[in-house]
Amino acid sequence: MSEKPAAAAARSKVIADVVLDRPGKQFGYLRVPHSHDESAWGAVAIPIVVVANGSGPTLLLVGGTHGDEYEGQITLLDLARTLEPNDVQGRVIILTAHHFPACLAGTRTSPIDGRDINRAFPGDPSGSFAQVLAHYVANYLVPIADAVMDIHSGGRSLDCLPCTMSHILDDAALTERTLALARAFGAPYHVMSREVDGSGTFQTTCESRGLVAMSSELGGGNRIQLPGLEIAERGVRNLLAYLGICGVRDERPTKATQVMLLPDMDCYHFAPASGIYRPFHPLGTWVKAGDPAGTIYDISDPARAPTVVHFKRSGLLWSTRGQGRIATGDSCSVVVVAKN
Ligand SMILES: [Zn+2]
Q: Which residues surround ligand 1, an ion (CB under 5 A)?
């Protein structure tokens, strides 16, 4: 624990059994205290892998921030097994299943405290399970990273056109560094967004500290989607090469990453009724404001015509509902627009 940065906001209850500045390869755990009926002095063990050699930048790679998103977990499990210190100049810190209890359960939120860890940042060392874990990541891992990639995939409730993501920032230099990272990763799209509520996200914590960081949405619907998995595997290797940590960039022919914006709430379309959402267009369709986006069927009233949802904006259909049922207020579609 001697490697903990002095700048840590408060002492963490998390016990790490890896030494973050030790050369070589370490498989270990972040032990987050969790006292419950079956284990008075129990802890939840969050897997962490550190591969370090020589001097160079530190890349923090994270999968499983949401437990119903699988492409990042698989990609980083494969990387953790196969990456060797002799391959590396610098350091790679890997959380293969960041919110481990949610990953075990295949859920977005924690079965322990009900929280979405991606709304629990920058965390609280005296808070609930997810808050304590978020605090450790924010105060002990983020400060020693030169770049962060948090791999998301839409989860159960969304289906997304594969992309990397960051927020629309006032900091022009950080924006350019982030876009360079996105182009190196090489997803078909990079979406710069204003979120419905981005205040407690891992991404926001990194960005607020001036750290170049990205997340992604590589599919969704609570399943593995092979195009997103391929993008994640290739993208992580490309990041390692771009940062000079290991390997060479995969230059196989792909389209250059197209930068898109999600600038305001008009891009989001929320369900005005509950029922089954029937989208009218596949993801990746260029749509026009006023066009029907889809309909919501009320299965309790066969005589009633479905409720039609219309696009408020012209743009690229980037996200739609990830499962059949939808409730009033859920996101049924999101449109993004091209950056000039
Ligand atoms: Zn997610």
A: 66, 69, 152
For ligand 1, the distance from its centroid to the CA atom of residue 53, given in whole angstroms, is 31
Rounded distance from Cα 286 to ligand 1 centre (Å): 24
CA–centroid distance, 6 to ligand 1, in Å, is 31
Question: 155 C-alpha vs ligand 1 centroid, how far in Å?
Answer: 6
Contacts of 35 (CB under 8 A, 6+ apart): 41, 42
pLDDT in tens, the chain (340 residues): 444 554 455 799 999 999 999 999 999 999 999 999 988 999 999 999 999 999 999 999 999 999 999 999 999 999 999 999 999 999 999 999 999 999 999 999 999 999 999 999 999 999 999 999 999 999 999 999 999 999 999 999 999 999 999 999 999 999 999 999 999 999 999 999 987 777 899 999 999 999 999 999 999 999 999 999 999 999 999 999 999 999 877 767 678 999 999 999 999 999 999 999 999 999 999 999 999 999 999 999 999 999 999 999 999 999 999 999 999 999 999 999 998 7
What is the phi-psi region of residue 186: left when phi exceeds 0, alpha when psi lies from -120 to 50, beta otherwise? Answer: left
What is the largest distance, in Å, between two alpha-carbon atoms of the chain? 70
Q: How far is the CA of 72 from the centre of ligand 1 (A)?
A: 10
Cβ(153)–Cβ(219) below 8 Å: yes
CA of 105 to the centre of ligand 1 (A): 15
Q: How close is the Cα of 100 to the center of ligand 1, in Å? A: 14
Ligand 1 centroid, distance to 249 Cα (angstroms): 26
- In the reported structure, the alpha carbon of residue 220 is separated from the centroid of ligand 1 by a whole-number distance in angstroms of 9
Burial grade of 330 (CB within 10 A; 0-12, 13-18, 19 or more):
middle
Whether the model pTM is above 0.85: yes
Give the residue ranges of DSSP H helices in 22-141.
Answer: 71-82, 100-105, 129-136
